[in-house]
Design goal:
Length: about 450
Amino acid sequence: MATKKKKRPSPTPKVPLTEGITPASAFDNALVQFNRAAKIIKLTPDQVAVIREPRRIVECKLPVRMDDGSIHAFKGYRVQHNIARGPAKGGVRFHPDVSLDEVKALAFWMTFKCATIGIPMGGGKGGVIVDPTRLSKGELERLSRRYFAEMIELFGPDRDVPAPDVNTNPQVMAWFMDTYSMHHGGDYLPAVVTGKPLEIGGSVGRSSATAQGMVFCVRRAAAHLGLSLSGATVAIQGFGNAGSFAAKLLREQGCKIVAISDVSGAFTHKDGIDPDVAIAHVEKHKTLAGFHRVKGVERLADPMKLLELPVDILIPAALENQITGKNAGRIKAKVVAECANGPCTPEADDILEKKRVFVIPDILCNAGGVAVSYLEWVQNRMGYYWRYQRVLEDLEHMMNTAFDTVLKTALQHDVPLRTAAFIVSIERVARASELRGLYA
Ligand code: GLU
């Protein structure tokens, strides 16, 4: 009797929206943020037309041979938002919820993130609609190489330089870099991507850079607000690269990590979670599933309630649109430090402002990642690699300078930090465009 073959779950599942979250267009939200600042600095309609919209949008079909011999056609995007200040820069995301709207918003935020921290790069972002946990390593490699090969003409050290984002990592960057190098006759061309493994041109300090940059911002914010970090309570949504390093580094600052979460759920411990135990758990089990079996740890029935815990510092380190008009009124944190891109909608921003919550916006707070990507790119082009201390010092200088400039601008115009960061960065992008004559 022939045995029926078990149907394999699709690698591109449609994930239902988390209950309670209003489906919002991330790009529309980004435009609202832009418009708020553009109004204050009185941008002309020509300037708005040149700066706000993406420069180039590419959508590709990515056929990949699966292990069972079948072919699955994935869909991938790359958006170059702006290149006035330097090559397009920004990660590539592998996630089932990737959409063109999302990639446009993420590319947009990269333009203003790079300008806020003053690195000579523009904005770009890529994405593939896929659940990478449903792929074998071989399938993931073939998909990564196909993505890069399909768009090879877009990329280059002076053109467009990708990096890791949600669900992509140094190994994926290594495949990107190899695909590009082989396409160019086997030359060693590491500067085409950042976030690579150290062995092939990565930079020390890159993997912890996003969280480290956030810590520099939080330290500045705490000093401004008169908040002591020693014993300050923290809740972190998302336990990927940014979230897990955030837990580790904030604990080193004396904070108590009372809640963490990932796709498998949210977990609390009133005396504080040991980040090393949580990281070891994820290394072993892939996610935090089952973490409540650790002594003292409890599981929240509704993971979204993590955002509403009575903590000093809340770190959204997952996806967009998490704090919305619906739940912002219930946020109790004094400081929201955005490690994720776009976690607060404009409606949420208005509510948080009224509640006097100090929001450190994504384009400042999580810019440490791209800052060290820039340092990696510089080292690749020199062929000379720095010590960790040098990278850390440069990162601290970039973050502190950016934070001080944004805070000063916020106080000057009496606006929240997000609008201030857009004022600073839009002015820089506009000036670069003007100098290059791009208004013509
Ligand atoms: N994906 C990260 C971000 O959203 C890093 C981008 C980069 O290093 O280019 O900022």
